[in-house]
Design goal:
single chain; 76 residues; mainly alpha; 3 helices; 62% helix; disordered C terminus; Conjugal_tfr_TraD_a-type; Conjugal transfer protein TraD
């Protein structure tokens, strides 16, 4: 497997682990996609974006091993 394919596979696994961590492993796929589409519409400076980001940071602090993911490591 090439490095690009390995990196892409690792990214998918890490993103899937976020779904599990959020308690949505058994959620309907259409529901999950709809939620992600709604999240994608939020501006990075919106109050809702900041609120949700804080909630995610708190969840990672509750499980520090999950915070080591390189996926989505944007800073505010």
């Amino acid at each position: 497997m090439t490095l690009d394919r390995t990196t892409a596979a690792r990214e998918r696994v890490l993103l899937g682990s976020l779904v599990v961590k959020a308690g949505l492993a058994r959620a309907d796929r259409a529901f999950l996609l709809g939620g992600l589409i709604e999240l994608a519409r939020l501006g990075p400076d919106s109050p809702e974006h900041h609120r949700l980001r804080r909630a995610g940071q708190e969840a990672f602090q509750a499980d520090p091993s999950a915070a080591s993911s390189p996926i989505g490591e944007a800073t505010e």
